[in-house]
Design a protein that fits this description.
Elements: E1 31-36, E2 43-51, E3 54-62, H1 66-79, H2 92-95, H3 108-128
Antiparallel strand pairs: 1-2, 2-3
Length: 129
């Protein structure tokens, strides 16, 4: 029996702000993390401006599909204002309500989360040095 994929649309509440799939790089940032999408091999990069362990701004670049851009935009909207250590626990489920659609079969959201975790790991390593 072949495995089939399905597209799922989240039913976010009317009060959940949706994001526009726009991701722009920051001119000044504290740390960045880069991951590659396994499907297309293109990079997703997140840049974090962290002050007193709070993520005060975030940006980046997404070289892959428009769905990846929407995932990254939703992730950025979720982590800005968070403590850098608390943001380590952010998962796809935390930012999916901010998206206009969720396509489970793609998994592009995982690579955005991976880039975030790499950036936060780099931040912790730099702080420990």
């Amino acid at each position: 029996m072949p495995f089939t994929y399905k597209e799922t649309t989240m039913d976010a509440t009317p009060n959940t702000p949706k994001v526009r799939p726009v991701v722009t790089p920051l001119d000044h940032y504290t740390i960045e993390g880069v991951s590659e999408c396994s499907a297309c091999g293109r990079a997703v990069k997140i840049q974090l401006l962290i002050e007193n362990d709070i993520i005060v701004n975030a940006g980046g670049t997404v070289e892959s599909c428009s769905y990846s851009r929407e995932c990254m935009a939703a992730l950025i909207a979720t982590v800005v204002g968070m403590n850098a250590y608390d943001a380590q626990a952010v998962s796809s489920e935390d930012f999916q309500p901010r998206m206009t659609r969720v396509i489970e079969k793609l998994g592009c959201d995982n690579w955005c989360v991976a880039a975030l975790r790499i950036a936060l790991r780099n931040y912790r390593l730099r702080a420990a040095a």
